[in-house]
Amino acid sequence: MSKSASWLDGLAVGLSALCLIHCLALPLVVAGLPFLAQFAEGHLHLQMLVIVLPLSIVALGLGFRHHRNQKIVIAGAVGMLTLVIGATVAHTQLGLAADRVFTIIGALVLAAAHLFNSLRTREHRSAALKSR
């Protein structure tokens, strides 16, 4: 695995963790600081998707070139789709609780996909080095 693919997976896991922290902490901040409530639910989820989706697609694609494990890519796609639903449909039509549920589940599934993507790519690289 190239260092850039490993770095992208690490960054994607980190961003998924930030998303999870945001979703869990934001209700506490809003409850404790009503003044911030008017700013808390802007377009942050959509802004994060602009970063997360391309990064995840590239990282999972680079990993797939090495390990060829479709389950990892499918899990990543499910995680990304769940995040998109949370930031769009759930956010606008289903309410804050549904938004949080979709976003938390999507972040966890996507982070797991990136973790397995990184592990499988490392295994593939290690096996390739041993066979030389």
Structure, explained:
The protein is elongated and about 60 Å long. The two termini are 15 Å apart. The protein is built from six helices and no strands. The relative contact order is 0.18. The protein has one domain (3-130). It has helices at residues 3-32, 37-40, 44-67, 70-87, 89-94, 96-130. Helix 3 packs antiparallel against helix 4. It is 89% helix and 0% strand. With 132 residues, the chain is mainly alpha-helical.
Summarize the structure.
With 132 residues, the protein is mainly alpha-helical.
Topology (SSEs and partners):
Elements: H1 3-32, H2 37-40, H3 44-67, H4 70-87, H5 89-94, H6 96-130
Estimate the helix proportion, in percent.
Answer: over 70%
Task: Round the mean pLDDT to the nearest integer and report it.
Answer: 81
C-alpha termini separation: 15 Å
* Strand segment count: 0
| pLDDT < 50 stretches | 35-39
The outline comes out as elongated
Distinct helical segment count: 6
Total individual domains: 1
Largest sheet at a glance? none
Q: Helix/strand/pairing class, anyone?
A: mainly alpha
| Percent of residues in beta strands | under 5%
Oligomer: single chain
Helices and strands, in order, run as HHHHHH
Q: Cα-atom Rg, whole angstroms?
A: 17 Å
